[in-house]
Amino acid sequence: AYNVQHGVDAEYITWLTVGNQPTDTTTLIPFLKGMEENLNFKYLKIVADAGYESEENYSFIEDNNQIAFIKPANYEISKTKKFKSDISKRENMIFNVEDNYYICSAGKRLFYKGEQKKKSASGYESSKSIYECEDCSKCEYKSRCTRAKGNKQLHVARNFIRLREKSLENITSEKGIILRMNRSIQ
Q: What pTM value is reported for the model?
């Protein structure tokens, strides 16, 4: 099977690629590189749906001096009451920036334990910070917070979070709302 991607500007298809990548996530960078190599200009604003969201894509766009208007994959669910009340989510914990630890619903600290590096098939290296709770053994919230036999762990991709937040700010701006609306229409 093949994955067909097309870019649209003012209702005209401006670029088209066909590739054997199984997901949209892995098509964005080759698509943008192809456009740049073959067109006489470079688009400043990259508008895409949640299927294109990845740290690698965000980083490429930022490094290429472009602006990401990519809808976060968790955009809709993050607005729900269920998400906002889920005590297992990093987003619902307090983060102490100065001393680099999280505080869970039970008031326990999740301390920094180290970094975990990962390389994508294309060679992009990402990093996650690992945090672990000081002691979950007698916690009344444990069953709602983690399925781990030991202590709760958080794997936090700081760069991805930073880039996602920047893109979220972009798509919820006045200009971003217009761009997403136009994308849907086209």
A: 0.89
